[in-house]
Design goal:
With 377 residues, the protein is an alpha+beta fold. It folds into two domains: 1-188 and 328-377, 2-Layer Sandwich (Ribosomal Protein S5, domain 2); 189-327, Alpha-Beta Plaits (2-Layer Sandwich). It is 35% helix and 25% strand. It is built from eleven helices and 13 strands. It has helices spanning 76-85, 117-133, 139-153, 161-168, 190-199, 212-220, 226-245, 248-263, 272-283, 309-318, 338-341; strands spanning 2-14, 26-45, 49-54, 60-63, 90-91, 97-107, 171-177, 180-185, 200-206, 286-291, 298-304, 322-324, 334-337. The strands form two sheets. Strands 1, 2, 3, 4, 5, 6, 7, 8 and 13 form a nine-stranded mixed sheet that branches. Strands 10-11-9-12 form a four-stranded antiparallel sheet. A hairpin with a 2-residue loop joins strand 7 (171-177) and strand 8. Helix 2 crosses helix 4.
């Protein structure tokens, strides 16, 4: 049996940082990108054990008991997802059985890009594991479980916007009272969607060096930055209103206001490379600019002026940076069974490509042996 899941990353997050535990009430507007993290769960009868593997980094770990997992910086998020799910690899009794479980992951987003790829991994992993166990979860529940992997199991700092964007897909406005959030999909007219997808330029500047220590410093000095947090939340509201009006110029202004407030949180949020890109992009015809996620490198979202995106892309390439696809995802988390999707016509009740996790809905599926529980063997 093979179960696969994919979840998108997000970009152009206005109001980021206000979805964290240091802000009592925040607001975020973000956009899911058609850049996906894929998780493949393969279950076969045979020698028991669990294997986790990154197809991007060639990292691989193998263990037999989820209760004895060691978090050491190697595939820790996948380890946490498997441990939280309580995957069984052995059943005792008259008809004892053993299962070999393999979980593989790969991502279309660059590492440390500020696009929320770890959240996409967590969402896709929870989606695949839940389907395997026959658990029916709302997408909001999938997002919450994914966020708990980071903040509870791995003791990391994490807001809530990344997981929600990955689970829901699309363009979303979020009213946040950490750790709770109300997710409001923002409908885009066809004209606005086409214009954004033509004019967005998503740039990978290089691996982010914005360390966890700097994250902690922003958190420790949160009281000094209340004005910045208010400005960030206001930028999210203004961006949402601009999209609803179809006012691209106002959306660009919200991006720029967000970037100024974002930089005010810590000097390392921008870098010499980002500042060089900012100057080159605006000289080439950009009208909006912000670093994605926490900043400090990673990726930047640029909004070009009308019919200027080709010039902005050319300027990016001349700086030796990489332009990534910036199309808008509208599907969010997807889960499917490969054996069913590839079965001959008439032998499967699953239509290939069918949504297996529906936004705001439940994950259809049935209980698949072996059942969930503590690992043994």
């Amino acid at each position: 049996m093979q179960i696969r899941a994919r979840a998108p990353v997000r970009f152009c997050d206005l109001g980021g940082w206000t979805d964290t535990r240091v802000v009592p009430r925040g607001a975020v507007l973000n956009i899911a990108a058609r850049l996906y993290t894929y998780v493949t769960l393969t279950i076969r009868e045979g020698q028991s054990g669990i294997t986790l593997e990154s197809l991007d980094t060639d990292e691989r770990v193998h263990f037999h008991d989820v209760r004895r997992i060691e978090y050491n910086g190697v595939l820790d998020l996948l380890k946490a997802a498997v441990a939280r799910a309580g995957i069984v690899t052995y059943s005792s009794g008259v008809y004892s059985m053993r299962w070999a479980v393999k979980v593989q992951v790969r991502s279309e987003a660059p590492p440390a890009s500020g696009l929320g790829s770890s959240a996409a991994l967590g969402v896709a992993a929870i989606g695949a594991l839940s389907r395997y166990q026959g658990r029916h979860l709302l997408v909001q529940e999938v997002a919450r479980q994914s966020q708990l992997l980071e903040v509870e199991d791995l003791k990391l700092e994490s807001g809530v916007q990344d997981q929600l964007a990955s689970a829901y897909g699309g363009v979303n406005f979020m009213e946040v009272e950490y750790p709770n959030a109300r997710v409001l999909p923002v409908p885009l007219s066809p004209a606005v969607r086409y214009e954004l997808e033509d004019r967005f330029v998503l740039v990978y500047t290089g691996r982010s060096h914005f360390s966890s220590a700097m994250h902690q410093k922003v958190i420790n000095e949160a009281d000094r930055h209340r004005g910045n947090f208010d400005d960030l939340a206001r930028a999210a509201v203004l961006g949402k209103e601009a999209l609803l009006r179809g006012d691209i110029a106002a959306f660009a202004a919200a991006m720029n206001a967000n970037w100024e407030a974002q930089k005010g949180l810590h000097p390392d949020i921008t870098t010499p490379e980002i500042e060089t890109l900012h100057r080159a992009a605006f000289a080439a015809g950009a009208v909006g600019f912000k670093a994605n996620g926490a900043g400090g490198g990673g990726t930047v979202t640029i909004l070009a002026g009308p019919d200027q995106s080709h010039l902005v892309r050319r300027a990016v390439v001349e700086l030796g940076m990489t332009v990534l696809p910036a199309q808008i995802d509208t599907t969010g988390l997807q889960v499917w069974e490969v054996e069913k999707a590839t079965a001959p016509s008439g032998t499967s009740d699953l239509v290939p490509g069918r949504l297996e996790v529906e936004p705001g809905g439940r994950t259809p599926g049935r209980s698949v042996s072996p059942p969930s529980g503590g690992s043994a063997g």
